[in-house]
């Protein structure tokens, strides 16, 4: 049975499903889901992420987290945590770059939140010297200070979409037309959580909601306020989003998200405002939302590129210059991607970010 057959059968039984249910099934169905069955990253895959573009990304992030650890008095045991670690490249680069920070690695317990068994295997290989601990959610993290990074994790979390009608909302749902999946609208309802959005939307506007993102950020914030630490959330998106950002990518090309369930990467832009407000409500501070290019420049990525460039020539040198540009330039990833830092009330923001 294909995932499409399974979804059609389920919709025939239960009626139209939310986009969140659809995303969760497509991405993480245990045997037919997108992430459960493959390594989607890299030039041969469907998309390329910052750590796969260059080691410099993980190196400067590692140094930012290590500086937070120093600023918070070098706790002698802490959870160095990553959400959705993909191939394990970012964590491997963080670990290599922080070898020179005395005591940091000895104090670190590597903790990974990863739902895909296929990617867990790749992470185990990339990090075989470090005995990582895999957990299902931040809520299960050990009772230790938490120094955490999440790159392109929140965009994979399931969203729901609502279209405004008068003072109410109609949810965008997935049903069947002929033998195909198709979007439709549910009945008008009140949606208490969307009351604040009545102030900045008009009839027909579409808003997105990511309950899983709110839950994750709330767990992080509670942990930081109790045990200390810091979190860096890096993703494409903006402060206060409006409109449809649900998208599917297959072999680096946009495709219809309902066309081939389980075969394409499904994502939505991250709406950082509700994440920051939820973190604040759960007891911790958040930084100003900062463009990735600005953040990486402040952490010295250009200086790092110059050091690496000194021993390169020809094609490898050209590749390094291109990678630096891709990560930082406003017309590439520099502006689309943003960084949000979370930190305890009494602590300084992570280097590279402002309160
Ligand atoms: N951070 C990596 C990979 C990004 S792809 C990088 O930058 O290269 C998204 C990652 O999040 C994958 O590892 C995917 O399996 C994982 N993931 C997606 N949804 C998840 C969920 N609900 N719980 C745990 N992991 C999830």
Write the layout of secondary structure elements.
Blueprint (H helix, E strand, L loop, with lengths): L2 H12 L2 E2 H10 L5 H4 L12 H4 L1 H17 L6 E6 L5 H9 L6 H4 E6 L3 H10 L6 E3 L10 E6 L8 E6 L2 E10 L2 E10 L16 E4 L1 H17 L1 E10 L8 E4 L2 E3 L9 E3 L2 E2 H10 L2 E3 L3 E2 H7 L2 H9 L4 H15 L4 H4 E8 L11
Parallel strand pairs: 2-3, 2-5, 3-4, 5-10, 10-14
Antiparallel strand pairs: 1-7, 6-7, 6-9, 7-8, 10-17, 11-12, 11-13, 15-17, 16-17
Helix pairs in contact: 5-6, 9-10, 12-13
The protein binds S-adenosyl-L-homocysteine.
Tally of strands? 17
At the fold tier of CATH, the topology name is Rossmann fold
| CATH class descriptor | Alpha Beta
- Shape, please? globular
Amino-to-carboxy terminus distance = 51 Å
Oligomer: single chain
How many DSSP H or I helices?
14
Computed Rg? 21 Å
Task: Please state the second-level CATH architecture.
Answer: 3-Layer(aba) Sandwich
Tally the structural domains: 1
Beta-strand residue percentage: 15-25%
Main beta-sheet annotation: 9 strands, mixed
Helix content: 25-40%
- Overall pLDDT level: 96
Give an overview of the whole structure:
Helices cover 37% and strands 25% of the residues. By secondary structure, it is α/β, with parallel strands linked by helices. It has helices at residues 3-14, 19-28, 34-37, 50-53, 55-71, 89-97, 104-107, 117-126, 211-227, 272-281, 292-298, 301-309, 314-328, 333-336; strands at residues 17-18, 78-83, 108-113, 133-135, 146-151, 160-165, 168-177, 180-189, 206-209, 229-238, 247-250, 253-255, 265-267, 270-271, 284-286, 290-291, 337-344. It has a single domain, classed as Rossmann fold (3-Layer(aba) Sandwich), CATH 3.40.50. S-adenosyl-L-homocysteine binds next to helix 4. The site of S-adenosyl-L-homocysteine has 20 residues, from helix 4.
């Amino acid at each position: 049975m294909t995932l499409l057959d399974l979804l059609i059968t389920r919709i025939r039984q239960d009626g139209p499903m939310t986009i969140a249910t659809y995303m969760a099934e497509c991405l993480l169905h245990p045997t037919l889901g997108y992430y459960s069955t493959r390594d989607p990253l890299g030039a041969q895959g469907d998309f390329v992420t910052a750590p796969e573009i260059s080691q410099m990304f993980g190196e400067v992030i590692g140094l930012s987290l290590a500086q937070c650890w120093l600023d918070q008095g070098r706790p002698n045991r802490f959870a160095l945590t990553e959400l959705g670690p993909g191939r394990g490249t970012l964590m491997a680069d963080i670990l290599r770059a922080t070898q020179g920070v005395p005591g940091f690695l000895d104090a670190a317990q590597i903790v990974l939140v990863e739902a895909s068994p296929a990617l867990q295997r790749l992470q185990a290989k990339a990090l075989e010297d470090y005995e990582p601990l895999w957990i299902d959610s931040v809520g299960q993290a050990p009772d230790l200070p938490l120094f955490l990074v999440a790159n392109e994790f929140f965009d994979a979390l399931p969203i729901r979409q609502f279209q405004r009608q008068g003072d109410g909302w109609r949810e965008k749902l997935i049903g069947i037309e002929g033998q195909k999946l198709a979007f439709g609208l549910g009945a008008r309802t009140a949606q208490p959580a969307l009351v604040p959005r009545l102030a900045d939307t008009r009839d027909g506007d579409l808003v997105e909601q990511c309950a899983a993102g709110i839950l994750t950020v709330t767990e992080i914030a509670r942990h930081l306020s109790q045990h200390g630490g810091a979190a860096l959330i890096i993703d494409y998106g903006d402060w206060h989003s409006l409109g449809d950002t649900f998208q599917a990518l297959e072999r680096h090309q946009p495709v219809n998200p309902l066309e081939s369930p389980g075969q394409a990467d499904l994502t939505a832009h991250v709406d950082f405002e509700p994440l920051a407000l939820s973190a604040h409500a759960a007891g911790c501070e958040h930084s100003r939302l900062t463009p990735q290019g600005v953040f990486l420049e402040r952490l010295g990525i250009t200086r790092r590129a110059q050091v690496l460039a000194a021993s390169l020539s020809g094609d490898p040198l050209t590749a390094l210059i291109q990678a630096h540009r891709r990560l930082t330039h406003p017309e590439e990833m520099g502006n689309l991607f943003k960084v949000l830092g979370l930190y305890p009330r009494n602590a300084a923001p992570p280097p590279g970010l402002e309160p």
